[in-house]
Input
Amino acid sequence: MTEFRIATDLVAAENDKRAAALKSEYEALGAALARRDVDIEAVTKKVSEFFVAVPSWGVGTGGTRFARFPGTGEPRGIFDKLDDCAVIHQLTQATPTVSLHIPWDKVDAKELKAKGDALGLGFDAMNSNTFSDAPGQARSYKYGSLSHVDAATRAQAVEHNLECIEIGKAIGSKALTVWIGDGSNFPGQSNFTKAFERYLAAMAEIYKALPDDWRLFSEHKMYEPAFYSTVVQDWGTNYLIAQTLGPKALCLVDLGHHAPNTNIEMIVARLIQFGKLGGFHFNDSKYGDDDLDAGAIEPYRLFLVFNELVDAEHRGVKGFHPAHMIDQSHNVTDPIESLISSANEIRRAYAQALIVDRKTLADYQDANDALMASETLKRAYRADVEPILAEARRRAGGAIDPVAAFRTSGYRKKVASERPVSAAGGGGII
Ligand code: LRH
Ligand code: MN
Ligand code: MN
Output
């Protein structure tokens, strides 16, 4: 029996207030979509089956390089974090898994599994951390990790990744995400070729230790913390990594890890075409790796990414099952509310992409009708699919309006009385 952190009666009472309005809005949308030959029930079913993982590190208040302003009732450790993740899933019914970061979330794996089971949560990809030094660690990652010039430092970084796989095996994860901060701040500081050779050799050792039913995701990022060069800087390098390592190695696309104006949806299409799209870290950004809430800045771009995913689904691309994960940092909002809203935005983009008239779009493309091709996408994007999202949540036992239900529940106030205020202070949060 799943332990619920928010009383189910409260969710039901909140839904009762909104059920009649939702019913009529859902029917009206159903009728409008039927006129376009779209079956609302089919879309609602697909949306209900679409899930995205919450990052354990996202439920605490984030920070910048300059400061961190803690919120109230912040999780004290991974068990509190899992409680918060369970609230997000209870209300959205869209986030049944959590992605852990080691060593931040390192505790006894059996206890992790038991806590996850009690809350009805599973575990998505494990994330290793060789971009900062853990207390007591023998060698520093100040000058790199998997690509470090020193073999013993590289070996330590490999060993850490193997430990992440072991923890992941014990809790039912099936993937490891590797993001490294390795790079350089000055021209000449690092030999690009040698650094990448060392990285590939280290990753090959990790790949060798990967169970058969696991996937290894490498995550590229253009810059930061290194500001002149980065070892895994873009999707081209990432593709080379995945291609060199083997079939279980795939590319992870964090939406915030590209230069402004990069055509990310096109990168997604390319990786799909060549069988190397592993998954996503969803978030939004204006300038760099801003880690803002999904859909907060460029919802149309999120839709265009999903348009590629649905196109692949529609074409029946073999073995296509990218991992959907969120990677955000919440500095000015309640992290639970931001993650609830982000999960909904991601589902919204999916629902809108599902109602694109693909046959008509293909015809316009073949006829070189640029205007009408664009209009065909826009028509789907402009549809207000909120009733579909709300109905999917309601049917699964979630909340019609999950942020409102969260606020009414008083959850944050309750945990604030149990959890001491955490330290404010300088930055250092990536
Ligand atoms: C790096 C990154 C990566 C880390 C996370 C905390 O910027 O996106 O995914 O694991 O942030
Ligand atoms: Mn990321
Ligand atoms: Mn990032």
Observations:
- The longest strand covers residues 249-254.
